[in-house]
Amino acid sequence: MNSHKINKVKFSPKGVKIKMDWDVIIVGGGPSGCFTAKLIAELGFKVAILEEHENVGQPVQCAGLISPRVMELVGITENIIINSLTDLRVFSPLGSKLCISSSSNYACAIDRAAFDRCLAVKAEKAGANLLTGAKVYGLQRIAEGYRVSVLLNNTEMTMDTRLIVGADGSFSKVAKWLALKNTNPRAVMYAADVKLYCPDTSRIDIFLGRSLAPGWFGWVIPLDKNTCRVGSGYAIKRQNCSPQYYFKQMVNQYPQYFSGFKVLRYTGGSVPLGLMSKIYTQHAMLVGDAACQNKPISGGGIYLGLRGALLCAKVAIKALLEGDLSEERLSLYQVFWEKEMKDEIVCGMKHRESFMDMTDEDMDFIIKFSRQPIVKNIILKHGDIDYPSKLSHKLLSFKPWNKRFFKVAMKVAGYDKI
């Protein structure tokens, strides 16, 4: 194993250009970026994390809903769980309702900012250098890697690195500079933390309907009896309305649930969906939202981004030790990612394509059918927010569901008119 002495960051007088050399520079201090940094830095490599905001975890642009396995994956033992969820209620656009109640926690609402900070602290303890308020404004290819241009406290810096990792979100500038195009479809969401009375804090509510969330869904995640995370959005191109419009549509359509709510702070954002064709090039890799590592069904990116970070770090460490950061060597990252997650993502995208074209009547039909005890038992036994394909495969092997769902799919595709 190579051992490298960690260089502490030193600042020059205001306005003076300074230069530093690194093994790895990670652009973006979110969960996937910090977890990648931790895994590489603990092997002794010189790692810098460049986070454009002054505070890690801010602003929050996430519903902060994770499975219990996420905490195990990153080794966080701090108490950042705000609420544990066991139940689910899904509203069809025509008034039907599906209620699922479990004896175990299937999801946790977390303090997302605290979660990000925990990962940043772990990265620093492993030896990574975290620079906040560091705005990357340029990337230049050099002989042994990349030269990164950064503005920090009105000081221009150039930082040379053997490996650049883009963890800078769904509109990644690093991906753009590397010509790693992302033309995948997107879900655009508008969300808020709200004051709202919630008598059942163990249940998530999901709202379906083309008028309130075309190609997507609305949600209410309780934090306590008086505070919830609420959101809606769309995932269909060429929308004339904003995500805020659909948020208001949901609130107006269900006045009995949203009466008297008060917005505490707005959140939201945009996530790319599906597999990205290429998440690496010579001396460079992408991870997290920048690499389109999100779940097509829900848009959640924490778990997939952390799985991507594991694989990114695994390939990066071996490449750094071997001194081979060629495009061919780093292509193993794509191979490993697709081996682990391709089937899951492709399955999710197929279901998303069917869902996108469903009418309100189709959604209502499926909700009513799902209320049967045998179907609810399948959902309870095989439902997994990180691996929804497990439930999908079980339902499709259940002949009555297969027949009904196939009927809807044929109608959506227009074959019922032939």
Summed over residues and divided by their number, the pLDDT gives a mean of: 88
Helix vs. strand class: alpha/beta
CATH structural fold name of the largest domain: FAD/NAD(P)-binding domain
Helix content: 25-40%
CATH class descriptor of the largest domain: Alpha Beta
Q: Taking Cα atoms only, what radius of gyration do you get, to the nearest Å? A: 23 Å
How far is the first residue's CA from the last residue's CA? Answer: 66 Å
- How many runs of DSSP E, i.e. beta strands? 18
Tally of separate helices? 13
Low-confidence parts: 1-18, 412-418
What's the number of domains?
Answer: 3
Q: Give the strand content.
A: 25-35%
What would your notes on this structure say?
The protein is α/β, with parallel strands linked by helices and 418 residues long. It is built from 13 helices and 18 strands. The chain folds into three domains: 18-59 and 113-183 and 274-341, FAD/NAD(P)-binding domain; 76-109 and 185-270, D-Amino Acid Oxidase, Chain A, domain 2 (2-Layer Sandwich); 348-417, no CATH class. The protein has helices spanning 31-41, 68-74, 112-125, 173-177, 243-253, 255-258, 302-322, 327-330, 332-356, 360-370, 373-382, 389-396, 399-413; strands spanning 18-27, 47-51, 65-66, 81-85, 87-91, 97-101, 107-110, 129-132, 134-142, 145-152, 155-166, 186-195, 203-207, 218-224, 227-234, 262-272, 280-281, 284-286. Strands 1, 2, 8, 9, 10, 11, 17 and 18 form an eight-stranded mixed beta sheet that branches. Strands 6-5-13-14-15-12-16 form a seven-stranded mixed beta sheet. The protein has a three-stranded antiparallel beta sheet with strand order 3-7-4. The longest helix is centred in the last third of the chain and has 25 residues, at 332-356. The protein starts with 17 loop residues before the first strand and ends in a 5-residue tail after the last helix. The model is unreliable at 1-18 and 412-418 (pLDDT under 50).
